[in-house]
Specification:
The chain has 194 residues and is α/β, with parallel strands linked by helices. Helix content is 40%, strand content 15%. A hairpin with an 8-residue loop joins strand 1 and strand 2.
Amino acid sequence: HSKGLIEAGVDEVGRGCLAGPVVAAAVILPNRFRHALLNDSKQVSHLHRQELAAYIEEKALAWCIAEVDNHEIDRINILQATYRAMHKALEGLDIVPEHILVDGNRFLPYGFIPYTCVIKGDSKYKSIAAASILAKVHRDRLMQELHEEHPSYGWDRNVGYPTRQHREGIASVGPSHYHRMSFRLLPQVEESFT
């Protein structure tokens, strides 16, 4: 973490979901950025996340949100899709960063820009925390909308994660156009309907 460099924080959300896109965000914050609520998006309430996202979008020097849909996830696999979403988010920034901070332990180099992977980075670096908030708010909103079209899976509550309600929906009405067919949608036991 070097002082004075233009640094972009990058994070993704939705990697473990059975449906919907994987979403990544990249954010460059001003040095003096402060917000009392800013922490890892999982620790922040739904209402606070909305408020934070609006604040980040207003105050960030640059930000971009990118998604890679379930069909592409099925085509190239979830890890490659996650890298692609992160790269798309970085590409969309109005400012080219000099250093990239990535949440987690794996990243595919983006151009020649040096990067650092930070485990639990969303609780250590503001720019990663900000990226995590933007990605989560964007994806949750999207899954709410898709829930209106496909109410059987409880996406308004589970946003596509493999909860019991989600799996029961798949078992009763089958998968939707938004499901990742390369994922195991139902546990093996339930697949042998007799």
